[in-house]
Amino acid sequence: MSTPTTFWRLAGMSYLQYVNKASAVVVNALKEPAKSQALARMEYSFNKSVWEAGTQGKKVPMKGA
Amino acid sequence: MATTMRIAAQRASSRALAQMVQSRGMATEKQIFNQIQSTKNISKITASMKMVSAAKLKGDENRLATAKPFNLWAQSITGEPKVVEDADFSELPQKTLVVPLTSDKGLCGGINTFITRSVKEIVKKTSEEGKTVDIVVVGDKGRGQMRRQFGEKILVSATEVQAPGSYALTSTLASEIMSVAGDYDAICIVYNSFVNAAVYKQVYKVVTPFVTEGEGESLISYEFEPSTKSEILNDLGEYLLSSEIYEAWMDGAAAEQSSRMTAMENASKNAGEMIESLTLQYNRARQARITTELIEIISGASALEG
Residue range B178-202: average pLDDT? Predict the structure, then answer.
């Protein structure tokens, strides 16, 4: 793969990581109360587990805001 | 002496009859009363669950209404979602990654069973054509149902997902899927689509990665700037997957709430019918008891007189 030219690739981020970070910056520029509502909407959490030959592995909590 | 013995015998026989009825397993008045009380409690719970689901459905429908136009651009690339029923899945390539979206909580009617059945159809029809599928299951109920049949096919599972979903959630899910989807030719998202408060259907959409050069090059009629086309197509591919999963997630959430609402309404209705028939049984048992007591009293009185 040739060297990337987009700055997020150069920083080692995927496009989705970049987009979510950028939208978090925009949300932080909002005034209250819209800001806290939007920040609450951006939260997520789930448990991920990798399966190995039919058995479930350990659950890893994934969380973010 | 003979009369008192006769009274005692009659009382004993009627009590023995009542005990015989108890030991034979026919419900006594007390047992039927307890059954009625617990069924009434259950019907209260199901009625309140239905109210809660109806309120949540409103929110989910609003989120779906904004998600659909958000994803419209993606549909012009991957096509509209196709109905699973009577589909032959012939357009799936050699190696597909199936992503079924199921719920974590139960008491939601048949949505998860239908999804599991759809995945079974996909596995069956693709294996007939010599193709392979692997599964990334989202949702606890789907995981539980699919581990028995497709345990070896599951790569990753995502459970205890916090509701309601958001773009942040689905972009994380998309990143996770892409990290395991390295050598798969396509990703097939299977989910329930909300039609109205009483109806939902199983649909699937196939997301294929963009071809950056050579034959079958994607988006050939467009000029790309400022970066090279291959870079932009990489980013666009990530965004396409996250957008498709976002719309699928919102659709599935609305379908789940509508299904739960219907299931709880049916449960309340059935509980009401049960209470009615139990009440009739209870009254019959109560009248039988009163009659027995009356017979005892009257036979005792007539024995004293006689």
Answer: 93
| Chain B, nearest residue to A45 by Cα | B162
The residue count of chain B comes to 306
* CA distances (Å), origin B247, targets B12, B142, B188, B196: 73, 19, 14, 16
ipTM for the complex?
Answer: 0.92
Residue B193 contacts residue B203 (beta carbons within 8 Å): yes
Decide if pLDDT at B17 tops 70: no
Q: Do A9 and B143 touch (CB under 8 A)?
A: no
Chain A residues within 8 angstroms (CB to CB) of chain B: 2, 4-6, 9, 14-17, 19-20, 23, 41-51, 53-56, 59, 62, 64-65
Strand ranges (E), B120-268? 132-138, 154-159, 186-196, 199-207
What contacts A58, CB < 8 A, 6 or more positions away? A49
List, for residues B225-250, the tens digit of each pLDDT value: 776 888 888 899 999 999 999 999 99
pLDDT digits (tens, 9 = 90+) for A11-55: 888 999 999 999 999 999 999 899 999 999 899 999 999 998 888
- Closest by Cα among B255, B101, B64 to B177: B101
In this structure, chain A runs to a length of: 65
